[in-house]
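Quick one: structure tokens for this chain, please?
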Amino acid sequence: MQLSKEEEDALDGKYGDTLALAYRVLVAIGNAMDADRLISISWAHVSGVNYNTIGDAGLIFLEDISKGNARVRVRTTLNPMGYDPSKVNELNLSDEFIEKQSRIMKAYERLGIVGSYTCIPYEALDATFLPKHGSQVSLAESNAAIYANSILGLLTNKESAISALASALTGKAPYSKLRAQEARSARLCIDIKHDMNSELDYALLGYYAGRFNEDCIALKGIRQEDILSSATKPDAKANAKALCSALGTSGSAGMFTLNYQEDTVKERVEFTKHDASKVMDELSNADDGDVIVFGSPQLGLDELSMLLSMLKGRRFKKRCMIFCARSIYSKAENLGYIDALEKANATVYCDCCSCLTPLISRDDVDSVITNSVKAAYYLRSWNRVGVCLSSMKSIVEAECV
């Protein structure tokens, strides 16, 4: 890789050990990915916030690098953590977990990172915060990276917690893969032969597509209006988020495209009702559940509104957990959504997510009902609970009185 004089100096430790470490990470990644240089980025989104994800080793690392004068060089936001601090007295969490999660938060704050605690920064943050179309960014949350590449027209690879943090500290990223326009041409096209009637159908498609491990995948049979919110298509954003999150869960794909050149496509496959059923059979292993879970990715304002319109004043028969960003919660509270959801026997949690959460434990939950393929994957593999997958509409119809 060709480095500038300033980059070489930073790598040599002239600006401190933390910055030198960050550059070593980026150079190692760049060399592994055949990048010829580092480029500037304008936004980073860092994962590795939940104590359940990074453990003691990650906590010690963050505290070590945040003790000095190192600060992030670009606007940087954070993924969800492990619990909602505003509801800590209601939660059955150990003092150790709370204390260590708090130390992680403080370490990131010392680095100058915005405590957004959301996996949907593209939706939870003010629109003026987002970089303009075509900007280079570094996003570690997989659904956010895919959404940014596919819908917002930003350029990022699916970064790891370490690489995104290194980019935040340096303002740089290796110029490789999806950062270059030539890599954003699809070699695989999936022809959709299955009726796409709900957000769950888009999630099943995403999980199926992700397994092909292509950087960019063309989707034939989806219209722009199916995934772009409008007054006439209020469920479009839910479809897009379900597609992006599931695509990022099952493989290494970093984006999808609806507009593709026929001459770049080398392989074509179909997505049929049979393929959707196979994904369902793999991820959904329960006929019912003790708890209803919405929010992986976290729900946005449109989805909260959509859920309330489906409820029509009815109540959930079972405990219902809803996860959203705190900025979304504030807007929803002002609109009366939170009060209405609480009256419907739902609890809304901020700053955390249904994935890798200690809030759902095998000790008191045998299985959950959810519309999220990503949640289904992690709740089964990490929380070790059964999962009943169903669309939001179907859940409301079956579980409300």
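The CA atoms of residues 328 and 334 lie 10 Å apart.
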